[in-house]
């Protein structure tokens, strides 16, 4: 689930949004979203050589996995995404890999406990409130092994005023359309880098650091 340049002035159901765009998604992310092409490579570089198990939240068509499998071809991956069409495309590319795909909402899926060396997410978290993120990050923290690492690449901003304006507009649109809380609709609500770090620490991560940024595409590494 991604990204900033797909943004519309109205809301669209999350799964419908990405199903409608699956055919041009890879080309769009690689060529049109500043920093994404480079950050797929950077994310793969950040994963430790010793990694055996990866959880990929919002894995989409697996563009980040394209790079990760170049480095770690035998790694075991669990990928979760709302959009079956994207998962089908991912599996077609990587049918020979040790990968299990789950079509569902990662807020609802049981992520387990002490199950993964690394968890990753790429351009998927910028649609949710602070409270939703903290709860999800706590689940991720629990799912990681004792020395586990979470790597998030996402659309982030630097000014609180920008974050506040986008969250306010999202709330206004949801009120106008009478959308119940908890229903996933696409609208970009990026948080500031500082707020992202605070949320991850609140969820239990001991070390949280921004390690890379190009335009608004930002990578944060959180260690358990």
What does this structure look like?
The protein has one domain: 3-Layer(aba) Sandwich (Rossmann fold). Helix content is 39%, strand content 24%. It is built from 8 helices and 9 strands. The strands form 2 sheets. The protein has a 7-stranded mixed sheet, sandwiched between helices. The longest helix is centred in the last third of the chain and has 17 residues. The radius of gyration is 16 Å and the shape is globular. It starts with 11 loop residues before the first strand and ends with a strand.
Question: Layout of helices and strands, plus pairs?
Answer:
Elements: E1 12-13, H1 14-19, H2 22-31, H3 36-46, E2 53-57, H4 63-71, E3 76-81, H5 84-93, E4 99-103, E5 116-122, H6 130-143, E6 144-155, H7 160-176, E7 185-186, H8 193-202, E8 207-214, E9 217-223
Parallel strand pairs: 2-3, 2-5, 3-4, 5-6
Antiparallel strand pairs: 1-7, 6-9, 8-9
Helix pairs in contact: 3-4, 6-8
Count up the helices. Answer: 8
Termini Cα gap: 25 Å
Q: What is the general shape?
A: globular
The CATH architecture category equals: 3-Layer(aba) Sandwich
Low-confidence stretches: 1-9
Q: How do the strands of the widest beta sheet line up side by side?
A: 4-3-2-5-6-9-8
Q: For the report, how would you describe the main beta sheet?
A: 7 strands, mixed
Radius of gyration: 16 Å
CATH-level-4 superfamily name: Vaccinia Virus protein VP39
The CATH topology comes to Rossmann fold
* Whole-number tally of structural domains: 1
Write a brief caption for the model.
The chain has eight helices and nine strands.
